[in-house]
Amino acid sequence: VFPAGCVEVRRMILFRDSLRASPNDRALYARAKRQLAAQPWKYMQQYADAKSAVVAEIMGRAEAEA
Description:
By secondary structure, this protein is an all-alpha fold. 77% of the residues lie in helices and 0% in strands. It is built from four helices and no strands.
């Protein structure tokens, strides 16, 4: 849940749309999530933090194309 006008909403939509438009990024993200999901995490935040690099990579391309 985000407050009205929150910048993060735009970023999430941009990320979603990027994955929909790019088979390569979609495959990269799926591969990363599968590899990370196979690991034991004490806290869910550790999993989220571990995928930050791949998310940043995809977002960099998405923002460059926007």
